[in-house]
Amino acid sequence: LMRELSGRGLVFFCDFHGHSTKRNAFMYGCDSEKAGGSKEELVFPLIMAEHSPAFSFPDCDFQMRRHKLTTGRVVVCKELGI
Prior knowledge:
This protein is α+β, with helices and mostly antiparallel strands and about 80 residues long. The protein contains three helices and two strands, in the order αββαα.
């Protein structure tokens, strides 16, 4: 990923998920407030929830739990700062 991005930068990383049993879509993200940032990671999921009945904002998760430290969202957050 770093090689592909060299010289360009990344401004958005989206991790969509869905569950057939819940019949909805949601996102995982990283809590930027813990890193001294704002709550920018909430904007896109809130827009999705506002415009799509299939998207569930309450099912979104922005916590970086210890057992999730090697997931794409956490690695991208820590390595690229987004």
